[in-house]
Each structure stands twice: as C-alpha cells, then as structure tokens.
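Researcher: Re-running this chain for the archive, since the previous output was lost when a drive failed. Same request as before.
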Amino acid sequence: MGYYTRYTLAWEPLDDSSVEALAEIMAREIESSDYMLGALRADGTTLNARIWHYHEKDMEALSLKYPGILFTLSGEGEESGDLWKKYFLNGKCEASITFPPCTPRGGQ
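Model: Regenerated structure tokens:
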C-alpha cells in the first residue's frame, strides 16, 4: 500500500517561448504518462489523489527533455499538513520546500 498525494504541475518558460504552444505540449506529455494522467488534468491541475513513487525522477526526466522550462510540482499528502513544492529545471530538482502544518494559537 502506498501514500496518496494530490499533485499540481505548473510550467513557465524562462525565455520567450509561446505559453500557448507549451500548454499544448504539456497536455500531450501528461496524457502520455500513466502516472501523470491519473493524477493530473491536461492543464496540470489536480485530478485525483495518486501514488506516484517516482515523481521526482519522472519530473527530472521531463525537465531534461524541455530545458529552459521551470516546472513546479506541488503536493498535498493524505495526512493533514503534508504540503510541499519541488522545482525542476534542466533535469535537476533545484529546490524542495515543505510547509509545516498550521497550528492556531489559543484554539482560535
């Protein structure tokens, strides 16, 4: 059994590439990947919570295939407060940010 996460994928060209053309390319990439297709809509928004064990490896490969595009993969795990973002550029995971759960002060 695995851990279910709701993924969101965003992409941004770092040059003057056409945003519309890139959106079409990414829609085809998502539709051709079993794991991304089950987790994401063609526009990168969340479709279903999914077990995607190799998301980092898959995203590194995607970002290597499309250099100059900054990919942001966000995740929301099944446990409360499990929120994170990973940034991929030119085949590398450039940064990973994990957000701690919010604990209200004084029960407010």
